[in-house]
Design goal:
Residues 53-167 form the OBP47-like domain. The protein has 175 residues and is mostly helical. It has one domain (2-173): Recoverin, domain 1, CATH 1.10.238.270. 64% of the residues lie in helices and 2% in strands. Helix 1 (2-19) packs across helix 7, helix 3 packs across helix 4 and helix 7 (135-149) runs antiparallel to helix 8 (160-173). It is globular.
Amino acid sequence: MIRCSVIVVIYTLTVQIVADPSCLNPPPNNFITSCCVRNGHLRDIVAKCNEMIPAQTAARSFCHAECVFNETGLSANNVIQHDKMVEVTKDLFKDTTEFMPVIDAAMKKCKGVAEAKLVKINEIKLDGADKCHPLPALIMSCFLAELFINCPASLWQNTEECTQAKTFMTVCIMN
């Protein structure tokens, strides 16, 4: 899950840097992945997708997210199953019940956010968008950022570095 989160954050930064050069200096990855304690139910799926998608391809983040969506059943025949998203996601986070209200809010927000960013990607013809569909990566990026930004207090590591990482995620990932 951590590797997937990092890949999605890097991809999202690529898109955001076009619009906001101040986002060129992200916090170190270990802060992004360690500030909000989450469960690891996605690890096996992410590991499988890591093996299937070579790291050196430019379209890796798009294809990796598409793989995760396919493996979890969130996509079928290249169509995102929006009606299954809440059910599948809540099942993946069932051991971390504190996230349930955050998941509900993120699901409501991220479809629209992702579709708006997809328009930008199509306008700038971002490398890799023609190899795998970018929408799963955009949804996943938004969703993981929402989990991070709205991390329940009981799971948040309240350090200066984590506060800076949260500010970065709020300004550079969610705008």
